[in-house]
Design brief:
By secondary structure, the protein is an alpha/beta fold. It has 13 helices and 17 strands. The site of flavin-adenine dinucleotide has 32 residues, from helix 1, strand 3 and helix 10.
Length: 397
Amino acid sequence: MPEPPLRIAVIGGGIGGLTTAVALRQAGFEVDVYEQALELTEVGGGINMAPNATRVLRTLGLGAGLDREGVRPLGTHQRRWQDGRTLQRAPLNPQCEELYGAPHMTIHRAALLAVIASAFQADRVHLDHRLVGLADKGDSTEVWFENGAHIMVDVLVGADGIHSTVRTALFGEEEPAFAGCVAYRGLVPAERISGLGLELGSQSWVGPGGHFVHYFVSRGRLLNFVGWTEHDRWNREDWTDRATVARALAAFEDWHKQIRTIIAAAETCFIWALFDRDPLPRWSVGRTTLLGDACHPMYPFMGQGAAMAIEDGAALAACLRAIRNPADALLHYERLRQPRVTRLQQMSRANKTRFHLPDGPGQAARDAEWADVGDRSPDALRWLYEFDPAAVTPILA
Ligand SMILES: Cc1cc2nc3c(=O)[nH]c(=O)nc-3n(C[C@H](O)[C@H](O)[C@H](O)COP(=O)(O)OP(=O)(O)OC[C@H]3O[C@@H](n4cnc5c(N)ncnc54)[C@H](O)[C@@H]3O)c2cc1C
């Protein structure tokens, strides 16, 4: 008699958790998602989905939703903070589709989450369920929620973000560290900045102690911006409550007119503090594992945090399908994923320094290096973009 499918609980209904739920369901498992919030939401405006992520989402049948909601930027344009000089350009579309079989996209976060959620049974997403405890029972795991509910499952997946309770339950308390950066984030209706004549693409402005990124979302109707500045300390009272357009303008006071025009066209903006953790040596204990920001948060300076969570979901589903013993499958999954996400964590950290160099010889050397390389083909990131996370390759000792 065939064995019944594994019952799997995914904790967290963010981009990582929902993608994983879709991938696990399509692999034949019985899956439920438990989310603490009263509705599925995403904080912030836009997000980049590089071809490694859009390919996974397309494989899960989400291509039409992405095409409906997303934008295919023509390229990225790296510019100098004050004089606007071009430091480097990189074409993205249609080259990414030709090279990697999937486009690079920019999309509103809420729209992305809705597209992913549309592929999963709504009555198996349990809102208002905040995990507060778990106990390993050998062949199953018991889970408790703040609302008094409790469940028994065969496999538990913690996709509950950087402040993960599942991670704390497995590996102990360890506060994430403030990364020394805050972001001013906002959305601007495209018609308000039509005078800038922006092409449908991304621009990234690098300057002393900060950088500023903007790209279109919502089929080009909105321009999303994120302006990063460095600070020694963070406290919520000083920042979140005083997030105003005027304050964002003051933070980018001497920067190029285009940046100031974009900020000034926003009705509101909010401030986001960046937190970080060091790479975690283990992700799994028995039949419980982690994914996404719960186990490998990264600075967003490679635009790959959510992409890695999406890849994790595809890899986890493939490992659980290929390897009969769930605990062995989770171990294989974590070993497959760790080298790749650690590399991206390190590259993202290095980009903070590289993007924020003060005016002077270091910055001039960086700019000269970019100029020497010339326009960057998306082929330069082949190792990143063509990767298939669902390939359950053997682990080399
Ligand atoms: C400014 C900025 C820009 C970025 N840009 C990009 C980009 O361009 N491209 C990219 O790929 N990545 C980007 N990232 C990174 C990306 O946003 C994150 O890596 C990604 O959203 C993490 O997804 P996740 O599902 O792992 O976690 P989260 O999105 O944090 O989701 C966790 C979910 O778990 C829920 N939860 C938490 N605790 C519990 C509990 N105890 N019980 C039940 N539910 C719980 C939460 O409510 C939430 O819904 C950016 C990040 C920032 C800050």
